[in-house]
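Researcher: Quick sanity check before group meeting.
Model: Go ahead. Protein one:
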Amino acid sequence: MGVNCTLEVGGKTAMLTINRPPLNTLSRDTLYEIEGYLDDFESNDGIRAIIITGVGDKFFSAGADVNEFAELADPGKARSMIQRMHHLFNRIESFPKPIIAAVNGRALGGGNELQMACHLAIASEAADFGLPEIKLGIIPGYGGTQRLPRLIGSRRALGLMLSGETISAKTALEYGLVNQLVPANGFLETALAYADQLAEGPPLAIRGILDAVSRGMETTLDEGLQIELEHNVSIVRSEDAIEGISAFFMKRKAEFKGK
């Protein structure tokens, strides 16, 4: 168990909980800890889906630890820290296994940027979302200026970032910032059930979809189609593809092995 995060593994799903109450802030050490867990998840074939959430029901994460802001006054330290966080959040976004943000409460600043980097997001009806950095005279630093417009469109994203306004979970769903809303009562159980369902899917096909979408979003349509083509040619010959097609015709549940 880490100092700033706790890990629970059930079946093929790992749940990583930011454990820094009351705000679950993302200190430098917390983010490094998450990075270490990603190393473990990537090398462990038994883990097929990951949930990231926050302890309690008030905050998913309030973002960066303000106690570390003084260090950012040094341009060299600021550049180094932000670049490392960009690398971490890019890694989450391009991770070969599905990462689901289970937004149990407020997701602000870096906490909102963290959930944006995840492949999917499930939100408690009690959650809200914001990038309030403008109110401190600064700008989002962990990818918010780039990911938010890609997720909800530039007009809406600019409106939220320039005002520092927070939005409700319902509005986040309407904007496309999250995939699903869940009542606060039984929230984690629902998120785990969703992750478990993904974990039973074919690992090679899931990895192919994640990669094709992640890389394809940054290319032309033709280049993206080429990425899709290469994954198709590779996966269609796999044991999982043979198993999936066989199970379909035999009307039984497929047992995917990631081969």
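Researcher: Fine. The other one?
Model: Protein two, sequence then structure:
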Amino acid sequence: MSGDQQLKLKFAVHAYAWTSSWSNDELHLIDHAKELGLDAIEIPLMEPELVDPRAIKERLESVGLGVCTSVALSEAADPSSEDPEIRRNGLEFLKRCIRLTAEMGGSVFTGVTYSAIGRRIRRRPNEDDWRRSAEVLKEAARYAQSMGVTLGIEPINRYETFLINTAEQGIKLMRMIDEPNVGIHLDAYHMNIEETDFYEATKMAVPYLVHYHLSESHRGIPGRGRVDWDGIFRALGEAQYDGLVGLESFAEISEAMLPATCIWRDLAPSSDELVVEGLKFLKQTAAKYY
């Protein structure tokens, strides 16, 4: 099958393609994402005080675009922390993000929701780390369910978290949380580091999948790196997955984002070229399996 009209997937773009933060100054990106052929936009919630959900919802509805949200937690709001006050901060921060998601009309809130990004420890994670994270996320998930929101768990690479690096680990945490509105969010960039097989990892996670970051191995334009895109879309197509997939790549990096992304050079001539060329490649590849 071929042609955009036959694809069941909902293609999103992360706002990080153009900006490192979100406020009302970025509302025009909603219109721009629609113009470029996207089905949804992913809005970061690391600075929730800047986010105006009513303005976002109005803009989304005016152009007919969907939305999801994501986060990477700081050490002051780490659900896996040994400090109960920090865990409480983490729960309240997650609840705030869930509220914002619901208020802007979204139904998926995801990302590194289980531990602080970049936190280093001098030992292997133990069952207490897992238990603490699962307990906080269980409360967050129950709150999210009351708001009509699904909570995602995104495994990321070993250099950015000590806790959840693989799809298998993400599923383990999901089962510990044991709430019906919790799922898995894969990211091909991180999988390129941690997984041995893109097809098998995707196949394992797809029954629980709520989002998939279609990021290249270098985080530039998809199709120009080492990710096994055929393996990914074969697994998605076999399952007839019809949910969110998202272009998360970076072309214009602010100084604030440099330490988090470790991107020190231009990965594409421009943000728009990254999105347009990446989306074209991803849709063409997906069409072979749908």
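Researcher: One line on it for the slide.
Model: Residues 24 and 52 are 7 Å apart (CA to CA).
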